[in-house]
Recover the amino acids of this structure.
């Protein structure tokens, strides 16, 4: 488990998502059994909007780490497209992860962090 956590943290250490600025990727190749992540730090009540399409079925999730556990409130198995909005119940770093199967996959996606609106 420590190796998995290190891999996830390393991939989240890149360019974090910027609130209000959509991250749009038209074409990303994921090699067989490899993964790709996009991560953002969210406060409780903030949202992640996402949509994606893939050339082959892949596994998608939104997850976060709590102690030694990896918790995934959103899971889509063997999907080729999906979209939705996830509202963070807790202040955490959340990651969207796509993992390809044996054939690999080419994906296109859009992710947007929406900050809470002031009332």
């Amino acid at each position: 488990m420590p190796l998995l956590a290190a891999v996830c943290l390393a991939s989240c250490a890149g360019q974090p998502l910027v609130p209000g600025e959509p991250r749009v990727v038209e074409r990303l190749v994921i090699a067989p059994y490899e993964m790709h992540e996009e991560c953002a730090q969210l406060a409780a009540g903030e949202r992640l909007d996402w949509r994606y399409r893939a050339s082959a079925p892949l596994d998608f999730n939104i997850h976060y780490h709590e102690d030694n556990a990896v918790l995934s409130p959103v899971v889509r198995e063997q999907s080729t497209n999906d979209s939705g909005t996830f509202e963070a119940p807790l202040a955490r770093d959340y990651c969207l992860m796509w993992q390809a199967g044996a054939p690999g996959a080419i994906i296109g996606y859009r992710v947007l962090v929406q900050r809470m609106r002031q009332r």
About this structure: The chain has one domain: 2-114. The two ends are 42 Å apart (CA to CA). Residues 2-12 form the longest helix (11 residues).
